[in-house]
Task: inverse folding
């Protein structure tokens, strides 16, 4: 069984998202205190440990996104794009809800990245012919 290579735009968004998550993972893994400070948090060893744990899960997500983008069947690309559209929007919203007195410039940039990816996925899903019909066409 071979995977078809349709949905090039969504595959590119997934690949780009995987790259951004990969870079974020490296940042969280090697400079969690700086990341915390940019978000407006007072960093401590427990929070830095938690950020490193998140970094490892981002590495896994990055690998899965890239795998789907490069080798996934069309249905997997569509499913991943739907999940990522919701997840990226939630990431943006949660970033704006960061429990600090004042949001920092980094909070707004980080939220903007999340919302931008969500929009990119939504655009790809809306403009993709047949994206809504994949279940009906299965045999």
Result:
């Amino acid at each position: 069984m071979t995977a078809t290579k349709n949905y090039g735009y969504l595959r590119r968004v997934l690949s780009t998202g995987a790259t951004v998550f990969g870079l974020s993972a490296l940042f969280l893994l090697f400079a969690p205190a700086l990341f915390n400070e940019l978000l407006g948090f007072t960093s401590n060893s427990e929070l830095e440990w938690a950020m490193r744990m998140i970094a490892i899960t981002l590495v896994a997500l990055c690998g899965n996104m890239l795998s789907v983008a490069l080798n996934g069947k069309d249905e997997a690309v569509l499913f991943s794009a739907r999940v990522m559209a919701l997840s990226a929007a939630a990431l943006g919203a949660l970033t704006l809800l960061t429990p600090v007195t004042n949001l920092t410039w980094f909070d707004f940039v980080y939220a903007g990245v999340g919302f931008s990816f969500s929009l990119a996925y939504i655009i790809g899903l809306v403009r993709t012919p047949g994206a809504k019909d994949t279940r009906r066409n299965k045999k």
